[in-house]
Design a protein that fits this description.
The chain is of the alpha/beta class. It contains 8 helices and 12 strands. The structure holds calcium ion.
Length: 228
């Protein structure tokens, strides 16, 4: 059974999400506080996707996210945000999350997002497991990791998929739509902005000077390109 962690302190929202996940074929592991969520993740290493509410009684959802990522956990993370939260602030704080869903959300939208993320994080082994070397980068497609100058760069699964897409297409301008389709899947409901959010974060992780990127360059009015 595919396990999804549901961290939400409001019991009625949590049970609404849990019922819909069960209908969609997922096993929901419930948590009402940040501490509980971290315990459940430690106890259930087979959880592949976590839904994290932001406003919680003990710590905020971003802190939960940071702590999950601090353990180098490759889990897919979706933040549940309220419409009243300013999106710029939310995306700026999404340091380790892969996606966000704004409340109120429809069950179909939520499960489509989880399905898409599950596919990305489901550990699909690539048959031609190998290394892609483009100095200073080395991409290991077997364990889905990236090194820069021999140093491991901690990436989320989504970030890894974006880097792989770029490294498979060096010098080619990729539109935001192409990136969204390739990384999140064609059935993804979200906005193109999520591409920019992830690229901004990737630049901080891999560029020598994120304000003057040399690896992920902007193609104005279109998208991004790997290389100058
Ligand atoms: Ca809440």
């Amino acid at each position: 059974m595919k396990k999804v962690l549901v961290l939400e302190d409001e019991a009625n929202i949590r049970s609404f999400v849990v019922i819909n996940l069960k209908r969609a074929g997922y096993e929901a592991i419930e948590a009402a506080t940040g501490e509980e969520a971290l315990e459940q993740i430690a106890r259930n290493p087979d959880i592949k996707v976590a839904l994290l509410d932001i406003m919680l009684p003990d710590m905020d959802g971003f802190e939960v996210c940071r702590r999950i990522r601090a353990g180098d956990n490759k889990i897919g993370i979706i933040m549940l945000t309220a419409r009243t939260q300013e999106m710029d602030k939310v995306t700026g704080l999404m340091t380790g999350a892969d996606d966000y869903v704004t409340k109120p959300f429809s069950p179909a939208e939520l499960t489509a997002r989880i399905d898409a993320l599950y596919r990305r994080t489901g550990g699909e082994q690539e048959p031609d497991a190998a290394q892609v070397s483009q100095p200073p980068f080395l991409l290991n497609t077997r364990n889905r990791t990236l090194e820069k100058n021999g140093q491991r760069v901690k990436l989320t699964q989504i970030e890894y998929s974006i880097v792989k897409l770029f490294m498979d297409n060096p010098g080619k301008a990729l539109s935001r739509e192409e990136i969204l389709d390739a990384v999140w899947g064609r059935d993804y409901f979200g906005e193109l902005k999520i591409v920019d959010v992830n690229v901004r974060r990737l630049r901080i992780k891999i560029e020598d000077d994120p304000t003057n990127p040399a690896y992920i360059t902007t193609v104005w009015g279109y998208g991004y390109k790997w290389g100058l």
